[in-house]
Write a structure and sequence with these properties.
Helix content is about 20%, strand content about 45%. It is α+β, with helices and mostly antiparallel strands. It has one domain: Nucleoside Triphosphate Pyrophosphohydrolase. Strands 1, 2, 3, 4, 5, 6 and 7 form a 7-stranded mixed beta sheet that branches. Strand 2 and strand 3 form a beta hairpin. The longest helix is centred in the last third of the chain and has 15 residues.
Length: about 140
């Protein structure tokens, strides 16, 4: 299954949601979800960001491609998600938790060490920091 994520960045802060469903229930990550049949990936990023955070976003460049493979108790593959994470910036709306999120918040990059953030999100934040240091 193809999924998307929105790395919403503004002024040195990023939007994180606390997942209310599996996989990674209770952990902090970027808003996102599965691309619907016939939906373009940029449309999916905008839709998922709005549904999960209340923010309208402008979608930027692709920042990461993540394979997330979930196995059952006997080791058989249950799901294989290919997740396309895109940088995004807010252009409207107001921050509020939506359908798959129990909480939503702005977090500084320094605060990520204090939160139970998924491994993939940590890797993407490292790319964001490298981008900032390069002056992009």
């Amino acid at each position: 299954m193809v999924g998307v994520g929105a790395v919403i960045d503004e002024g040195g802060r990023i939007v994180l949601i606390r997942r209310d469903r599996e996989p990674a229930r209770g952990r902090w990550t970027f808003p996102g979800g599965v691309v619907e049949l016939g939906e373009m990936v940029h449309e999916a990023v905008r839709r998922e960001a709005l549904e999960e955070t209340g923010l309208e976003v402008e979608v930027g460049e692709l920042v990461a491609i993540v394979d997330r493979i979930l196995r059952d108790g006997s080791g058989r593959i249950q799901y294989h998600y290919v997740i396309l994470d895109f940088f995004a910036r807010p252009v409207g709306g107001s921050l509020r938790p939506g359908d798959d999120a129990s909480e939503v918040r702005w977090a500084s990059l320094a605060e990520l060490d204090e939160l139970d953030v998924t491994e993939q999100a940590k890797e993407i934040v490292q790319k964001l920091l490298a981008r900032r240091q390069a002056g992009d």
